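Good morning,

Attaching, inline, the backbone tokens for the sequence recovery test we're adding to the shared suite. The designed sequence is right after.
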């Protein structure tokens, strides 16, 4: 049932996108620049702290030591509001800033709601983080064309297993 709903939403989103003028773009660089550097040194670290299966998500907020017990090195930074690390429905890792781009405040962070969407607790904008790279799907973010800030996730150049970076 959930898959059918997602297919229907995807078709609806495509129809809406086709109806928009060609110049309509999603602005996913609205937040103030904040450094991002989160390292997973081994495959075992990734298996413990990363996202290893489709539809998984985890939050990293260095100022609050979230998740508890994560070994943040001195060089770690987690963006403006923190990092939302997700695994798409195809199992590919993606990362976003937790700060809502409508609110633009470090302490207003999106959360994953019961519909598997990122939602802002203040403006109630919703974003698709598992299929559409943080694109808005409702609320003021949709009206204004603001998407979540997207970060790079991939193998590190200094021997790290995976790195989240700007």
């Amino acid at each position: 049932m959930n898959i059918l709903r997602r297919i229907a939403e995807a078709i609806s989103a495509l129809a809406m996108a086709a109806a928009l003028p060609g110049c309509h773009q999603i602005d996913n660089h609205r937040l103030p620049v904040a450094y991002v550097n989160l390292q997973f040194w081994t495959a075992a670290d990734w298996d413990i702290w990363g996202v290893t299966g489709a539809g998984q998500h985890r939050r990293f907020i260095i100022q609050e030591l979230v998740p508890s017990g994560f070994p943040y090195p001195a060089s770690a930074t987690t963006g403006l509001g923190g990092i939302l690390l997700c695994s798409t429905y195809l199992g590919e890792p993606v990362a976003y800033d937790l700060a809502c781009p409508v609110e633009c405040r470090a302490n207003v962070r999106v959360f994953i709601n019961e519909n598997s969407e990122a939602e802002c607790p203040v403006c109630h904008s919703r974003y698709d983080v598992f299929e559409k790279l943080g694109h808005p799907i409702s609320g003021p973010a949709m009206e204004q064309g603001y998407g979540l800030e997207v970060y790079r996730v991939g193998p590190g150049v200094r021997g790290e297993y995976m790195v989240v970076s700007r």
